[in-house]
Design a protein that fits this description.
Structural class: mainly alpha
Order of helices and strands: HHHHEEHHHH
Number of strands: 2
Largest sheet: 2 strands, antiparallel
Mean pLDDT: 87
Helix content: 55-70%
Radius of gyration: 21 Å
Length: 200
């Protein structure tokens, strides 16, 4: 039997605090979005879908409670805008204190985490219990998904360069996009090598 002691110890050294990290970081994600300008909770959600959703997203059930907390802490202000025939808009604006809160969080050391659950790898680990073709199919389907994602990243990068060439945020947005591109390319390579290995 293979000994997993080294891997287990390695996993123990890297603290798997994914859920805790997300909960604690939600308000900073919202503060970051508000650096782009005053927005409603709806606007924040849509802004995340257009920009950070491939590595970080929040739902309305997370956004609105966090906005209430940020408002109570004076990290944001809120102004009600009346609309004829529509519900009032609650527009949130980042305060100087909120900027300092975000800057302090961005500057402090962080724990590097990773997702410890991967259904594809779990299936492949026990793959000897099903025909070879099934395992190859799982990997090939995953490869197709990654190729689609790669095209999304390529399109996103082109759009950023064309539409935001003068934006001071561009280099940082491209860093996150490039992370996704490189990660997806590596996974595509893993798929190709794994299929070849299984077929040999």
């Amino acid at each position: 039997m293979v000994s997993w002691q080294g891997i287990t110890e390695f996993g123990g050294r890297i603290k798997l605090t994914r859920r805790e990290g997300k909960e604690n970081s939600s308000m900073y994600a919202i503060l970051g979005i508000l650096t782009l300008g005053p927005q409603t909770g709806y606007d924040i959600k849509k802004q995340m879908e257009r920009s950070t959703s491939y590595f970080w997203n929040e739902n309305y059930g997370q956004i609105y409670p966090q906005l209430s907390k940020l408002l109570a802490k004076n990290d944001v202000t809120m102004q009600v805008e009346t609309q004829e025939g529509k519900p009032d808009r609650k527009v949130y604006t980042l305060t100087e204190q909120g900027t300092q809160t975000l800057t302090a969080w961005l500057s402090k050391p962080m724990e590097h985490t990773f997702s410890e659950k991967n259904v594809l790898l779990l299936r492949l680990f026990f793959g000897h219990n099903v025909p070879l073709e099934i395992n190859i199919r799982h990997i090939d389907e995953f490869k197709n998904t990654m190729q689609e994602k790669l095209q999304v990243f390529i399109t996103l990068e082109e759009s950023l360069r064309n539409c935001h060439s003068q934006d001071n945020n561009l280099k940082y947005w491209l860093l996150t996009t490039n992370y996704g591109k490189i990660q997806v390319k590596a996974l595509i390579q893993w798929c190709e090598e794994s299929i070849e290995e299984l077929k040999s």
